[in-house]
């Protein structure tokens, strides 16, 4: 299994969910994907289950963009380079400027949060999981973005789904979940 699946195994072990409950691990880093686990095993479908990054979001410049093309780290960097007209802008720089209250960075991060929350709303609507855990460098290095995602998710959900906001969490593993999950898999 790949790193996302292995990290999900670590999260399942850490979360202590009941066997029949559902966990979704979402990674936001150089890409954007997820894996789904219940009863200690993965939901795999025909091989593309969890490819959250492929979901189309919106049209921009006459072209449809996927979640990954809009919300993964490299996508945010490209948006920042274009917005600032500066080829050296990185996601780290955008988040730093966002924390300083810079309006352009705020617009970029708010749009990023909207796109991530729309993807999460898709998960909530299709699976209604007991726990959604974020990993990947974008989220584990910027845990202060979780409230933004929760706020934006609150704009999407209907009242009966409001419990879903409390299911969102940041991984306790700072980009080591894949290694831990692989170790747990080897012990089985």
What can you see in these coordinates?
Helix content is 48%, strand content 18%. The strands form two sheets. A five-stranded mixed β-sheet has the order 3-2-1-6-7. A two-stranded antiparallel sheet has the order 4-5. It is built from eight helices and seven strands, in the order αβββββααααβααβα. A hairpin with a 2-residue loop joins β4 and β5. It is an alpha/beta fold.
Q: How are helices and strands ordered from N to C?
A: HEEEEEHHHHEHHEH
Radius of gyration: 16 Å
Structural class: alpha/beta
Molecular shape? globular
Report the β-strand fraction as a percent range.
15-25%
Features:
188 residues; two-stranded antiparallel ribbon; alpha/beta; 8 helices; 18% strand; 5-stranded mixed beta sheet
Which helices and strands, and how do they pair?
Layout: H1 3-15, E1 22-28, E2 32-38, E3 41-42, E4 56-60, E5 63-66, H2 67-71, H3 73-84, H4 91-99, H5 103-127, E6 131-135, H6 137-140, H7 146-156, E7 168-170, H8 177-187
Parallel strand pairs: 1-6, 6-7
Antiparallel strand pairs: 1-2, 2-3, 4-5
Helix pairs in contact: 1-8, 3-5, 4-5, 5-7
Précis, in short:
The protein has helices spanning 3-15, 67-71, 73-84, 91-99, 103-127, 137-140, 146-156, 177-187; strands spanning 22-28, 32-38, 41-42, 56-60, 63-66, 131-135, 168-170. By secondary structure, it is of the alpha/beta class.
């Amino acid at each position: 299994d790949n790193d996302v699946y292995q990290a999900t195994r670590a999260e399942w072990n850490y979360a202590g969910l009941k066997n029949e409950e559902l966990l979704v691990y979402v990674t936001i880093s150089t890409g954007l994907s997820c894996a789904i686990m219940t009863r200690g095993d993965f939901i795999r479908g025909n091989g593309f289950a969890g490819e959250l990054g492929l979901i189309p979001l919106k049209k921009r410049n006459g072209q449809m963009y996927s979640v990954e093309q809009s919300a993964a780290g490299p996508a945010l960097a490209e948006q920042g380079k274009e917005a600032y007209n500066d080829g050296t802008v990185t996601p780290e720089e955008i988040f730093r400027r966002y924390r300083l209250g810079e309006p352009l960075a705020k617009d970029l991060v708010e749009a990023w949060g909207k796109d991530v929350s729309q993807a999460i709303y898709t998960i909530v609507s299709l699976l209604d999981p007991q726990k959604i855990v974020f990993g990947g460098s974008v989220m584990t290095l910027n845990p202060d973005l979780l409230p933004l995602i929760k706020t934006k998710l609150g704009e999407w959900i209907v009242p009966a789904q409001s419990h879903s906001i409390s299911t969102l969490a940041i991984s306790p593993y700072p980009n080591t979940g894949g290694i831990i999950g692989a170790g747990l898999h080897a012990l089985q």
